[in-house]
Amino acid sequence: MVMRLSDVTTLRIGGPVDTFIEGSLEDILPKIEGDLLVLGGGSNILAADEGFSGTVVRDSSREVAELGGSQFRVDAGVVWDDFVAYSVDRDLSGLESLSGIPGSVGAAPVQNIGAYGADVAATVVAVRAWDRDINEAVRLSRADLKMAYRDSILKRSARSQKWGPTGRWVILSVDFELVHSAYGFVRYAELAKKLDVPVGGQAKISDIRDAVLGLRRSKGMVLDQTDHDTWSAGSFFTNPVVTRAPDGAPAFQTDGGIKVSAAWLIEQAGFPKGFSMGGQVALSSRHSLAITNRGGGTAHEVLEMARRIRSRVKELYSIELQPEPIFVGCQL
Ligand SMILES: Cc1cc2nc3c(=O)[nH]c(=O)nc-3n(C[C@H](O)[C@H](O)[C@H](O)COP(=O)(O)OP(=O)(O)OC[C@H]3O[C@@H](n4cnc5c(N)ncnc54)[C@H](O)[C@@H]3O)c2cc1C
Question: What keywords would UniProt list here (predicted)?
Fold first, then answer.
């Protein structure tokens, strides 16, 4: 049977693939020639309707090893939220605010996943990766990975012409350093309000996890196959970092400049939650940053909507929104 990328991506979009292999990355990668797509949960990918004419590899490794102290070595194939649940169950703090993010451990450092005032970079010590340039396994430290807001050397490389939709390095395992504590910090106003603690205060990590999952569900940001608002690649655009925010825009100062709410820009530009151009693709009814498939949607429709939003925001605010997902066989 022909495997289609629509079967393995959360947008449920994408045409046929030439070859699909599932197994241990370390065994498979040395033998691959030609174009490569290493796939985790397919939750940050927009794949072309024409499909992918290379090899798609999915990692079957699922080990979590204790390295001593509060360090863990986690295989790339482990489901991200399973590891978050594992850490919270053992009173290990650090990942609780990242509960409910879809995908795999191996993809987490690629765009330095983040939510509710936390990002994964704070807990990653190093990764073991297959370097496709020299065909060897290498160790990259947190500093080597250059993780920033939804970015790292891995993501930059996955966007380069040279390497295709999977970059030069394929992560085999990630080393995390967590903190032995049943309590964690709450750094995001909406979450703090829900937990009834001040921003910067502490709460039990099990309560933080429950509150984050509740907030995420209310926005359609926890995968649910019966809920079309979750048939997305998460946020389609990142929050732009600018030197001057438009009047009235929710914005806050970061090291790199002023980060402006992309959701606000999109809504102000005339694209409310639920916006549709008449086809099978629409903005989520609960989250204006998520472009969703209502069933039978195509990559072509997603790109059309994304282009329209991007050009209108640029026209009104002179800000060019940057897409968050990785494109496979298509471009914005
Ligand atoms: C409903 C929903 C909510 C989301 N919420 C958030 C959120 O709050 N915060 C956030 O940051 N993201 C969010 N996302 C985006 C997405 O979940 C993350 O980016 C996630 O880390 C992607 O993991 P994945 O395994 O699905 O990666 P995939 O989509 O399978 O792959 C994405 C990219 O990573 C590469 N990749 C995958 N595995 C490896 C590996 N082992 N080594 C090297 N490269 C690899 C792929 O080749 C591809 O380039 C959301 C997505 C959805 C659908």
Answer: Cell cycle, Cell division, Cell shape, Cell wall biogenesis/degradation, Cytoplasm, FAD, Flavoprotein, NADP, Oxidoreductase, Peptidoglycan synthesis
Could you say which DSSP state residue 150 is in?
Answer: T
170 lines ligand 1 (CB under 6 A): yes
* Mean of per-residue pLDDT scores for the chain: 97
Question: Model confidence over 38-77: pLDDT tens digits?
Answer: 999 999 999 999 999 999 999 999 999 999 989 999 999 9
Contact 229, 120 (CB under 8 A): no
The CATH code for residues 64-180 is 3.30.465.10
Residue located via tokens 């909507």 = 305
Check pocket membership of 234 for ligand 1, CB cut-off 6 A: yes
Residue whose Cα lies nearest atom 2 of ligand 1: it is 234
What is the CATH architecture assignment of 228-328? Alpha-Beta Complex (3.90)
**Which CATH fold topology does 5-59 show?**
3.30.43
The Å distance, Cα 215 to ligand 1 centre, comes to 20
Q: Within 10 A of 318 (CB to CB), how many other CB atoms are there?
A: 9
Q: How far is the CA of 234 from the centre of ligand 1 (A)?
A: 9
